[in-house]
TrEMBL record, chain A:
The gene is pheT. It comes from Streptomyces cinnamoneus (Streptoverticillium cinnamoneum). Its cofactor is Mg(2+). GO terms for cellular component: phenylalanine-tRNA ligase complex. GO terms for biological process: phenylalanyl-tRNA aminoacylation. The keyword Nucleotidyltransferase does not apply. Residues 594-689 form the FDX-ACB domain. Keywords: Aminoacyl-tRNA synthetase, ATP-binding, Ligase, Magnesium, Metal-binding, Nucleotide-binding, Protein biosynthesis. This is phenylalanine--tRNA ligase. Residues 286-359 form the B5 domain.
Automatic annotation (TrEMBL), chain B:
It comes from the Bacteria. This is Phenylalanine--tRNA ligase alpha subunit. Gene3D superfamilies: Bira Bifunctional Protein, Domain 2 (3.30.930.10). The lineage of its organism: Bacteria, Bacillati, Actinomycetota, Actinomycetes, Kitasatosporales. It comes from Streptomyces cinnamoneus. It catalyses: tRNA(Phe) + L-phenylalanine + ATP = L-phenylalanyl-tRNA(Phe) + AMP + diphosphate + H(+).
Length: 689, 345
């Protein structure tokens, strides 16, 4: 909201000339200065108001706050004291959601009469000028006093005015040339015998609107239930100065005063005169609420040695009157937001200034440690970062376009999603139930940026629809995903490093498992896994911790790559089910370290695809003596004319060298290992190379 | 007996002709090796008469030492020359880039979040987590934001089936934790994604990150809150940072306050980054509202609560000196690498 400094001075003449000081006072009062166009007396300040302070939304409200803050006298603007009587215009109020209502009849004497220059300046600055003197006077009264005032053309009002709830199907025309807007039944409206005149507290209709030809006016000033106005404005998608004020709670004791200011403006300008007494069919029932405080508790809370008298003096500056010791009556402007003792403590804190309140030394205590989940995620992330991955953040939702990359059919496990009912953007229509689609989309985006060395990871959550979930909607499953594409060593220029593949990511998982002290295994990915259709069927694996599934990894399926436009690029994807992982912070219990240099031997088996390396290793381990030290793959060779999947795997076998063994003894063991493997897998085609 | 002078001359002649260590080693072997003339002469010494043997042995030793010294020097000289030549051949262009595999990086947001959490851990705050799919009770009602409250305007919400929603702030974790009725004191930090149903542009996001802390204990005061916020701000922005407190409004705290720091870009003079204000609000905070305490049964025994929080997305943008936050969520590895360098510079 924009206000002129000159306009504020009409309410607080003693405001400082020093603009920065004024700005500080506004900020310290909770009136956040969003901009200041400094131009001497024409200086304009743009304020952002606190959401609970409807009373701030006027010159009077801002002036009240500044006067209290700066200890300056507050003055008012001329207002006509209106008298109410039964002779006034006929009005009835049929809803308890109208808290106060007044209607004042006027006769327009000079439609072209000018309002005071300072009032016009205030209106123009706030962007509220209409050029119609009556309407401008009503708007000005609202802007100046905080009490919205509305004007109807009395000659267009048929019969008595009634404030009631709308009936089903009722509509109101809000703009000339547009169709009437149908209202939700039960909306609080102002009507006459034939039509709706206004949506109460929100906006007036066109059919009784004041125009240049208006000669008789009904000036409305009222107070409504804030929720009622809020619902009506929300349903219409409107936000007007009046609705903004009413939604936050207006002063139900102020309607007559607000109307009086509008009348004074019109009468003083020679634009209109009263044409009778004011109707007041409903006056706020009151009384004003009270709030009791414990002065000792308040002083402790604020950290100051304030007495109750100090408190009463300060609260009086904001309009709170002490009724009895420690009991304060809340002014009408504040009944909607001041209800608790702490609300009054806040008033006192603001009066003193939050900066002036003393700090209190914090009680000594011990620090806290990272939680196990934090440590686990840090361990996983640190491992991936060490391997060249960059953490990224994707959104918790996506749209159909992203999901199309995986193209799950209707009965596919990835087809059901939690839907977002009111997304502003179609890209946010559903909560993600997988991370692969976004990971592949990220790879595609990077390739478009000519970034073809990609290592990304994210710790996030997927939302898996399930009526059995605790919230009745979905399981929220934490995962870490990673995607790798391109050279395993892009900084290498002296020779070509291999591309990152399944085994690169498997190595990453093995390293993570090592750091978490977990025993990890990999088995072919079962076809029923939700991601099985999206990963290469022969280059994907399920990650097991013991026998528990703890993740998945694999090369992205060619169909997914094609849909994403990845060309010939073959990204690999990893996903860890975080809930299955634990970081074990105790040192691992290892067998004693042996200083004797190992005796090394190698065995090379030609192996068909039906037999896995893990199976051969298991047979050799079982057949080996207890002085076997290590057993691992050191080379895999695919013979030129090998059958599909056939490969030659070289195993490095190390033995303890102490106590000393003869060459014959060691070679005998090798014979045992070979015999064990060929006995077990010879029929399947495994042979020593 | 051999003519030792002739042997010496022969040695010098061959030494002069030798050009590399191989030739020199061959000379050494021939003149000083086990089967050399000199060694043979030593072996024959016992056959000589005493006087002659002594005199001849002296000459042999003298010659042997002389030759040993000369051949040693010659070999060392030649070795140095050969080494120098070989090293010249091994020249590399040291201006070529290094080839060690490079580390990746945590996202700048995580770095900032971790930095904040580390500060809070020093004060005893332990992290708790909560769901992102929430219900209206934990997101609004339990936090003193009833239906149709104006504050619900500030947080346009993504609504899901069954009246569920995506949490619009991490204060939901406060409601979750207090709902479990923990023993006091409670000191909890929560961080993570939050969602707002906004049209996305360079400066507005539908998902971003927040961090929040709360503390419940009998006897807490506004002074504790101020002291805590000052500590956090100084730990994050530096001991000399200029602070100010101002009134704010949050439905779940009363009083609510904001902590401003002098703009780190202009030092408080006013610039584009701070919209010419000179101050930037970094933390929203307050004493936990009595209605929230009542909701969870903590309106007793002088119990009061402190709550505070901030947008880590915004804080990251501030620290990186960027005005557009959208790229922080773009998964563009070029940008992530670039931002990482900014964070580590």
């Amino acid at each position: 909201m924009k206000l002129t400094l000159a306009g504020l001075r009409a309410f607080v003449p003693g405001l400082p000339e020093d603009v920065p000081a004024l700005r500080d006072a506004l900020d310290a009062s909770g009136l956040e200065v969003k901009g200041m166009e400094t131009d001497g007396p024409q200086t304009v300040v743009t304020l952002e108001f606190l959401a609970n302070r409807g009373d701030h939304r006027s010159y009077a409200g801002v002036a009240d706050e500044l006067a209290a803050r700066l200890g300056l006298p507050r003055t008012g603007l001329p207002a006509t004291r209106l008298t109410t009587s039964a002779e006034a215009p006929a009005v009835t109020v049929e809803s308890g959601r109208c808290l106060a209502y007044t209607l004042t009849p006027l006769t327009v004497t000079d439609p072209g009469a000018a309002l005071p220059a300072d009032t016009l300046e205030r209106l123009a600055t706030a962007g509220l000028s209409t050029g119609l003197t009556v309407v401008d006077a009503a708007q000005a009264a609202g802007l100046e006093t905080g009490q919205p005032v509305h004007a109807f053309d009395a000659d267009l009002v048929a019969g008595p005015v009634v404030v009631r709830e709308s009936r089903p199907g009722e509509a109101i025309r809000l703009n000339a040339g547009e169709d009437p807007r149908e209202l939700t039944a039960g909306t609080l409206v102002v009507a006459d015998r034939e039509k709706l005149l206004a949506v109460a507290g929100v906006v007036g209709g066109t059919e009784a609107a004041v125009s240049a030809t208006t000669r008789r006016v009904l000036l409305e000033s009222a107070a409504y239930d804030p929720v009622s106005v809020r619902l009506a404005a929300g349903a219409l998608g409107l936000s007007t100065p009046a609705s903004q004020r009413y939604e936050r709670g207006s002063d139900p004791t102020a309607p007559l005063a607000g109307a009086g200011r509008a009348v004074a403006l019109l009468e003083n300008a020679g634009a209109a005169v009263r044409d009778g007494d004011t109707a007041e069919p409903v006056r706020w029932a009151g009384p004003l609420p009270t709030v009791a405080i414990d002065a000792a508790d308040c002083a402790r809370f604020l950290g100051l040695g304030l007495t109750l008298d100090d408190m009463a003096d300060r609260l009086a500056d904001y309009g709170f009157r002490q009724q009895e010791p420690g009991v304060f009556q809340v002014p009408g402007t504040r009944i909607w937001d001041v209800k608790e003792p702490e609300d009054l403590y806040e008033e006192l804190a603001r009066h003193i200034g939050f900066d002036e309140l003393p700090g209190t030394a914090l009680p000594a205590g011990t620090g806290a440690l990272p939680t196990r989940r934090e440590t686990l995620l840090r361990t996983i992330g640190d491992t991936l970062v060490g391997l060249g991955f960059y953490e990224t953040f994707t959104e918790g939702f996506y749209g159909r376009d992203t999901l199309k990359l995986l193209a799950p059919a209707g009965d596919h496990p990835l087809a059901p999603h939690v839907r977002i009912g009111n997304a502003e953007d179609r890209r946010y229509s559903m909560l993600k139930n997988n991370c692969l689609a976004q990971a592949v989309a990220a790879a595609a985006a990077n390739l478009r940026f000519k970034q073809d060395q990609i290592r990304l990871f994210e710790a996030t959550r997927v939302f898996e629809p399930s009526p059995e979930a605790d919230n009745g909607l979905c399981h929220e499953r934490p995962v870490v995903w990673a995607l790798a594409l391109g050279s395993s060593d892009p900084m290498r220029w002296s020779d070509k490093a291999p591309e990152m593949d399944f085994f690169f990511l498997r190595g990453a998982v093995e390293e993570i498992a090592l750091r978490c002290r977990a025993d990890v295994r990999f088995v072919p990915l079962p076809p029923e896994h939700p991601l099985a259709d999206s990963l290469h069927p022969h280059r994907s694996a399920r990650i097991l911790l013991g026998d528990r599934p703890a993740g998945v990894l694999g090369e992205v399926h060619p169909d997914v790559r094609r849909r994403a436009g990845l060309g010939g690029k073959r990204p690999c994807y990893l996903e860890l089910a975080v809930e299955e992982w634990e970081y074990e912070d105790r040192p691992a219990v290892l067998p004693p370290f042996r200083e004797d240099p190992p005796v090394e031997r190698m065995l090379d088996f030609v192996t068909p695809r039906t037999v896995t390396s893990e199976e051969i290793l298991a047979v050799m381990r079982a057949a080996a003596p207890d002085w076997l030290r290590t057993l691992r793959v050191v080379d895999v060779f695919v013979p030129g004319k090998a059958a599909p999947g056939e490969r030659s795997i070289t195993y490095l076998i190390t033995f303890n060298s102490e106590p000393a063994r003869t060459a014959e003894e060691i070679n005998g063991i090798l014979d045992v290992l070979v015999a064990a493997v060929t006995t077990e897998f010879g029929d399947a085609g495994v042979r020593l190379r | 007996m051999t003519d030792l002078e002739q042997l010496r001359e022969q040695f010098h002649k061959e030494l002069a002709d030798a050009s590399d260590t191989t030739a020199l080693e061959e000379i050494r072997t021939r003149f000083l090796g086990r089967r050399s003339v000199l060694k043979e002469e030593f072996r024959l010494l016992p056959q000589l008469p005493e006087q002659e043997r002594r005199e001849y042995a002296g000459r042999l030793n003298q010659l042997s030492q002389a030759l040993e010294q000369q051949i040693g020097q010659a070999i060392e000289t030649a070795r140095r020359a050969e080494t120098a030549e070989r090293l010249r051949d091994e020249w590399i262009d040291v201006t070529l880039p290094g080839q060690a595999p490079r580390r990746g990086a945590w996202h700048p947001l995580t770095d900032v979040e971790e930095r904040c959490l580390a500060v809070l851990r020093r004060l005893g705050f332990e992290r708790a987590e909560g769901p992102e799919v929430e219900d209206a009770y934990h997101n609004f009602d339990a936090l003193n934001i009833p239906q149709h409250h104006p504050a619900r305007d500030m947080q346009d919400t993504f609504w899901l089936d069954g009246g569920r929603l995506l949490r619009s702030h991490t204060t939901t974790v406060q409601a979750r934790v207090l709902g479990s009725r923990p023993e006091l004191p409670v000191k909890v930090a929560a961080a993570g994604r939050v969602y707002r149903n906004e049209a996305v542009d360079a400066t507005h996001l539908a998902m971003f990150h927040q961090l929040e802390g709360f503390w419940l204990e009998p006897g807490l005061t506004l002074g504790h809150l101020k002291e805590l916020l000052s500590f956090v701000a100084r730990a994050l922005y530096g001991e000399d940072i200029k602070l100010r407190f101002k009134p704010k409004y949050y439905p779940y705290t009363e009083p609510s306050i904001g902590l401003d720091i002098a703009c780190t870009n202009c030092g408080g003079d006013g610039c584009e980054a701070c919209h010419r204000v000179g101050w930037v609000t970094i933390i929203g905070a307050g004493m936990i509202h009595p209605a929230v305490l009542r909701e969870f049964g903590y309106d007793r025994d002088g119990i009061r609560g402190i709550a505070f929080g901030w947008g880590t997305t915004r804080m990251t943008a501030q620290l990186l000196g960027i005005t557009k936050v959208r790229p922080l969520y773009a998964s563009d590895q070029r940008q992530l690498s670039h931002l990482h360098r900014g964070m580590t510079a």
